[in-house]
Amino acid sequence: MVAMDLFRSEEMSLVQLIIPAESAHDTVTYLAELGLLQFKDLNPDKSPFQRTYANQVKRCGEMARKLRYFHDQIAKAGQTPSYRPMLDRPMLDKDIDLDELESKLTDLEAELLEINANTDKLQRTHSELTELQLVLEKAGAFFSSARNAATTVQQQRADTENGSSIEEAIDRPLLQEQEMQTEPSKQARLGFIAGVVPKAKAASFERILFRATRGNMFLKQAPIEEPVIDPATGEKVEKIVFVVFFAGERAKTKVVKICEAFGANRYPFPEDPNRQWQMKSEVESRLGELQNTLDAGMHHRDNVFNNIGYNLEQWTVMVRREKAVYHTLNMLSIDVTRKCLVAEGWCPVSAKPKIQDALQRAAYDSNSQVNTIFQVLHTKESPPTYFETNKFTNAFQEIVEAYGVGRYQEANPGCFTIVTFPFLFAVMFGDWGHGICLLLGALYLVLSEKRLGKQKLGDIMEMAYGGRYVILLMAIFSIYTGFIYNEFFSVPFGIFGGTAYRCPDPAYSNDACPMASTSGLEKYRSDPYEFGVDPVWHGSRSELPFTNSLKMKMSILLGISQMNLGIVLSYFNARYFRSALDVWYQFIPQLLFLNALFGYLSFLIVLKWCQGSKPDLYHVMIYMFLSPMEDLGENQLFMGQTYVQIVLLVVAMVAVPWMLFPKPLILRKQHIQKMQGRAYGVLGGSDTESTDLEVDGEHEEEEFEFGEVLVHQMIHTIEFVLGAVSNTASYLRLWALSLAHAQLSAVFYDRVLMFAWEYSNPVIRLIGLVVFAFVTFGVLLLMETLSAFLHALRLHWVEFQNKFYQGDGYKFHPFAFKTLTEEDDM
Amino acid sequence: MGFFLISLYFVLTSLVGSLCVKVCYNKGPSTNMLNVVLVNTAVICCWLMWAIVWLAQWKPLINPVLKAEGE
């Protein structure tokens, strides 16, 4: 028989490689390109610093840091350099050596640091000069306006003196001449400081100045229209130009200190207008020069960035890979005397030829004298679980493995989950209108998967993208179950032939039937509506009693079917692992127990439907336990039902101890026999095995604790017996969620859309339509999808998988370049 | 009887689907087997649900009682 894909995990073997030291690096690189070997850490007791290649790992880390620095710098400069197209195998690009790259990176980093330092310095000078220029301009304006005012006053005075010396002599201030004389000396003592201060601090700056000088100062300020770059921080700040006038040396020191405290930059400001003008032109020319230098510097930096950016991606990947290779080399054990490295690891048996081929190529390419030795080890250690999935099966396998990675080679629920998971989802989400909406979304994701796969998506989008095929199948099954439930946004359609019901009085049509609302319509033909639920039920008074009964029974039937599938899979497991014990003392009693009780219930449900009889199935099931001998009366469905029920009850009762006791007892017996036989049987098998290498743990004593085994079996049995009841009941969630979905969509349709449609006003109708669309999208398509998804997940993880799935394996993580991510750089 | 006729359609779907997978989407024996299992599981699930609904409506115990005007 052909083995089925995905049903059993790949056969794995533990292999040992003895690699000559000179070709070790190349060998590991080639194996990482292949990506089919999981290396075992052979030095688990050594710290990262004690390992052979710790130094190289450190160097790679340092290089990765430099590359990150370049990346940040380029991003900060707002550049998007043209990336060189990625080579498929950058490691084999022999023209770049790692040492060469390292020195190159060091040089580049030094260069970049120097450029940055120079640019910073120049930038600082530039902003200082800009501020000075502003000060000259603004403060110059104060002074010239003040001078103008002063000259006009003098002019006026002169005019008045000349014009009307006699008349206005009385008005003339008495001290004027004295004032004029003392002015120069006073001027000499009045000092001032000009500068700029951030606008936000200006008010408190003024207040403090005022207090510190006890009011003996005069502050003149003018805002700068555009924010200027602060020389110290390099940020753009809104600032004002100020000029403080004060008297005396002490006041000056105070003002200077306050300026420093407020981060106000002081600038020299000559009083003489000529010198002001001279300084202004000087500053302007220097600014121009500086700008040129800065531009040249920026140009140079951009060139450097372009050079780096062109190779950055490539270098990053290369360094990441090198680092991973050295990490892996660190896991090998080194044999100093023989100058070779020993590696152990797991690989799929089917991949052995590929691995051997890679080993040979590596040995050839690294000009090694000796080939790598490749041999298979035998071990009792459990191998990792590895499924070769494709983009379609991957998401389903992940759903299974989110619960637990399968034990090595046990039956994988994944290959049934691919269908049953979306199917159970659809049972809860049955509406083909909603299904089509979901299908459109899924189709978008699937059809643009190439484009979406390349770009970085958000968390939620990433999840939807990963599960796009799951959503696709969910949508297709939802459309199918929607047809079965006959719901299209909760509207029924009579696509598959007309309804099977008509008015008892054939003279009337269904709608005009006078008895329709009292005794109801009657079924007039033997066959029901051919496909799905008859549209006549929708909106009738007996809709809920009918659909509830249908959906409840359907949940039980589907649940029993799925659980039986689970038990059958446990048989496949038992057969595969050649455990007759599990077949006879686990699989058979479990199958009998479940079907004697709930299989029988399913049988009764179907029988009742076929007969159209009215027995109470609750009563039948309950009294099957309470008083099995009693006559069933009108609840009898078939001849001899009482006897059948007694037999089934006995079978179920027997099945419990059958599950519980034989297995531990037989295990104990086998163990005792083995212990007795050991004294004689040692010589037997060892000859043939001597050629194979043996690994530690081979001779470990098998401990056998009877009590432990018995308790384990007891727990298992109790879990199964109670689980048979509770799991069956758990499947009723299918009914509950499907009911909730149908009712919610009916409410939205009736109360929102139909309500709005009763108005003839197109605006109200439009509003109703928009609200309906939003509610349908938000509640039914998002929230209901999520809840149905989670419930389907639970039904698979718990109710289905606990029948056969151990889920205690560990996943196969081969060392492969393509799985390395950016996080590995850290 | 309609039940068996339509069930026959499901069987035919299953056969055609299995054949299609083997002929039109041939990916080697082990993958084909998985695909055949998938097709058949899907058909069985769909048939099961259809059959349940069909049987439940075959000999109904309650009749649809329409809502009176204005209800």
UniProtKB/TrEMBL annotation, chain A:
Ranges that cross the membrane: 423-447, 468-485, 554-572, 584-607, 642-661, 763-783
GO cellular component: vacuolar proton-transporting V-type ATPase, V0 domain
Protein location: Membrane
Keyword Aminoacyl-tRNA synthetase part of the UniProt annotation: no
Major subcellular location class: membrane
Coiled-coil blocks: 91-125
The entry's keywords: Coiled coil, Hydrogen ion transport, Ion transport, Membrane, Transmembrane, Transmembrane helix, Transport
Membrane topology note: Multi-pass membrane protein
Database matches in InterPro entries: V-ATPase_116kDa_su, V-type_ATPase_116kDa_su_euka
Top-rank lineage group of the source organism: Eukaryota
GO molecular function: ATPase binding; proton-transporting ATPase activity, rotational mechanism
GO terms under biological process: vacuolar acidification
Family statement drawn from the similarity comment of this UniProt entry: Belongs to the V-ATPase 116 kDa subunit family.
Function recorded in the entry: Essential component of the vacuolar proton pump (V-ATPase), a multimeric enzyme that catalyzes the translocation of protons across the membranes. Required for assembly and activity of the V-ATPase.
Protein name as annotated: V-type proton ATPase subunit a
Protein's organism: Ceratodon purpureus
Automatic annotation (TrEMBL), chain B:
Pfam families: ATP_synt_H
GO MF annotations in UniProt: proton-transporting ATPase activity, rotational mechanism
Regions that span the bilayer: 36-56
Membrane topology: Multi-pass membrane protein
Compartments reported by the entry: Endomembrane system
UniProt keyword terms in alphabetical order: Hydrogen ion transport, Ion transport, Membrane, Signal, Transmembrane, Transmembrane helix, Transport
One cellular-component annotation, GO: proton-transporting V-type ATPase, V0 domain
Residues spanning the signal sequence: 1-18
Family: Belongs to the V-ATPase e1/e2 subunit family.
PANTHER family registered for this protein in UniProt: V-TYPE PROTON ATPASE SUBUNIT (PTHR12263:SF0), VACUOLAR ATP SYNTHASE SUBUNIT H (PTHR12263)
Protein name in the entry: Uncharacterized protein
